[in-house]
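Posted in: Structural Biology > Protein-Ligand Complexes

Title: Requesting predicted complex, adenosine-5'-diphosphate in pocket

I'd be grateful if someone could produce the 3D structure tokens for the following input. Sequence and ligand are given below.
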Amino acid sequence: MGRQGATDIDLATVRAALDSLREPDGTRSLDPNEIADVVTEGNWAGVVIGRDEPSESLLPRAHAHLATAFPNIDFEIRAGRLVFRGGRGVGEGRHVVAVFGGKGGVGKSTLAVNLALTLSAMGVSVGIVDGDLSAPDLPHLLGIHQTEAPSGFGWQLLSRKVRPPSQRTQPQERFGIELMSVGFLVPERVAPVLAGRTLVSTVLRYLVFDVAWKADVLVMDAPPGTGDELQTMARELPLSGAIFVTTPQDLAQMDAERTLTLLRENNVPVIGWVQNMAELNCPHCQRQIDLFGSSSRLSDAGLPVLGRIPFDVKLSATADEGRPLVLGDPTGPIAYEFAKIGSAVRRWLADHEN
Ligand code: ADP
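-- Reply #1 --
Done. Output follows.
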């Protein structure tokens, strides 16, 4: 018999296979008619379970069950707002790392971009997801300027259907990393007007699951605050780990602490935090000047410090030019600090593989 491909399976086969899936108490997990759709392409198969509020464990259990029955097929299981592809949710050995800031303007996008480029320089295949739906700045930071909305970008997520990989939106590429942003649908200077929990949830899940990412690690720039976007990210996206970036003032850390509580309530692991703009190295006297008071809230909450980025005008100047600092000055002190952060993140992901 030849190698089994996904085309060998169909709705009836998947229904039959899932008929033997059992709950821990021995009852049948799924009624065969709950399998709403099966789509196959090459050795990939997407299965949609027609249940709006699936239990968190249902998707991984159904995935393991099907993967055992059809070992040569990569399964993607969808149900309600959840998607599971194996591993930590986005696929074996694949991760979503989200960068949170609590407040706006603390350096979240700067960290996301420079961290992504640092990981890429370390040999990791990286994509950036611009999750800041009200201020999608990442294209600008990477020197991509969208003046017109592209036609044909439908961001609706199909609720009882699944798109095969070949029909997904292609991410843009820049400096060797992939990028997808709401900024590609909304021209610069136009407010994206993305309000409402359902719409926000749909767009964020679209950006992660209906884009044809090749990357193993998606770095996601999270929106500030603890609003709809964050609630969605924490509940509906399989985040491998979170990184906080914040300035040292107590007020900034207080807001980050609120986000931390939300993540912990939703069992999102936190990798650590980055102190940004803590000090300025005086160009005249070469002394270090502390710019703000120093709050220890995040360290007190048990988060390790991954790195300290000083205030440096080069960071904002290179960002405005669309050429991030770690590329322009790859051996400088800031790139060195990013290398420390990148190594810590990489080690953490390797330790949290499953
Ligand atoms: P956020 O994503 O949290 O809103 P940004 O990354 O957009 O924040 O940063 C806000 C502004 O501060 C940008 O102009 C950015 O270039 C600048 N900035 C961020 N970190 C530093 C730093 N360490 N030194 C100097 N400017 C910085």
